[in-house]
Design goal:
Number of domains: 1
Number of helices: 3
Helix content: over 70%
Distance between the termini: 120 Å
Structural class: mainly alpha
Shape: rod-shaped
Radius of gyration: 35 Å
Length: 114
């Protein structure tokens, strides 16, 4: 065995042991292993680099979708805010009308008719 290979094999064994000792009940690890299995990649520097780039692209795409969804929610909240503002104006106007009607009818209600 070449001297440079011993540390490399030791690091590989450590990684393998770590992965195998992780519980498959851990959803994140299970999903990651399934994703790697479906991609059927070979462990070369180029494929690792491409895998990393693919995963980063997946994360970017997912984040873009989330941001788009938040944009839709923000627009809906803006519409709700506008509707609430109009409702508040309507309620204020109705209160003004009720107050005016009360002022007009108060003298009539105070008069004794009998």
């Amino acid at each position: 065995m070449i001297d440079g290979q011993a540390p490399r094999l030791s690091a590989l064994n450590t990684k393998i042991t770590s992965i195998l000792s992780s519980s498959l009940a851990n959803i994140e690890i299970r999903d990651a292993l399934e994703a790697l299995d479906t991609r059927k990649i070979q462990n070369t520097p180029a494929t690792r680099r491409n895998l990393r780039l693919d995963l980063q692209q997946d994360v970017i795409t997912s984040n873009a979708e989330i941001i788009s969804d938040f944009g839709i929610v923000a627009a809906q909240l803006s519409n709700v805010g506008t509707a609430l503002s109009k409702l508040q104006q309507t309620v204020a106007e109705m209160r003004r009308h009720v107050s005016a009607a009360k002022l007009e009818t108060a003298p009539m209600l105070e008069v004794e008719w009998w």
